[in-house]
Every structure is written in C-alpha cells, then in structure tokens.
Amino acid sequence: MKLFKTTLLCGLLVCSTAALADVAVIVNPGNSATLSDSDISRLFLGKLKKFPSGTKAVPVNLKFGSATRNEFEKKVLKKSSSQIKAYWSKLVFSGKGKPPKELGSDADILALVASEANAVGYIDAASVTDKVKVIKTF
Fold first, then answer.
1. How many degrees, rounded to 5, is the angle at CA 101 between CA 58 and CA 135?
2. How far is Cα 72 from Cα 91, in angstroms, rounded to an integer?
3. What domains lie within the chain, and their CATH numbers?
4. What is the DSSP secondary structure assignment for residue 102, as one 8-state letter?
5. Contact, 23 vs 121, CB < 8 A?
6. Which pTM does this prediction carry?
7. pLDDT by 10s per residue, the chain, length 138
C-alpha cells in the first residue's frame, strides 16, 4: 500500500510540473511585430491573417495532443483541445477556414520560425534558443 501511495504521489508531482510549463510564442528574429494576447489568439484561430505591419502571418501549431499545445490552447486560446478540434472541423467543413500547419516537435517549430520571416509559433519556454525571438510567454 505504501508503494502505491508513493507511486501515486510521484505521478501527481510529474503531472503538475508538466501542467505548469510556460509556453513561449516565437517569431523570426527579423520580425519586429508586437502582438497582444488577443492578436495571438486571433492568429491561431484564423481570425487574423497579418501582423500589425501588414505582412502576412503564418501561424504554426505543435501536433495535436502534445502537452505544450494543450497548455497553449488552455492559456492563450482559452479553450480545451476538443473545443479547438470542433472549432476547426466546423470551419473546414463550411469552407471558411483551414487550421494552421502542424509540426511534430519544439525543434521543428524552432527551425521553421528561424528560417521563415512570417512564421509565428509556440514552444515550451525551456526550449527557446537565440535563433528566434520571444514575443510573449504564457
């Protein structure tokens, strides 16, 4: 019984640490855009297509179900993963929208954002490097 309680406690600690991870919204270092929380949300919901400068913005998501994506959707979009999935399903079905491209890892997002001037993505804040610029941390 003691082993069970210890294992359960360890599991809860690991889960709570993962849930507290900060999410960094990143852009290419050459991008001078400043985005409000609302702008970031609107970009990733397909409601905003350009940076304030007027240049096209290309949002990039992490793969569905990843811990960082779940945190981003909860903290920034204020929706659960299932709500986001339903939101995009409706837009795709009606022909009114297409969800952002999905990449498999923080490293993939970092590489794309570092190489594409118009890309905007998010990663675990612990994964940020000097190849990108952080515009907001949640």
1. 45
2. 20
3. 22-137 (3.40.190.10)
4. E
5. no
6. 0.84
7. 554 444 444 444 444 444 568 999 999 999 998 999 999 999 999 999 999 989 999 999 999 999 999 999 999 999 999 999 999 999 999 999 999 999 999 999 999 999 999 999 999 999 999 999 999 999
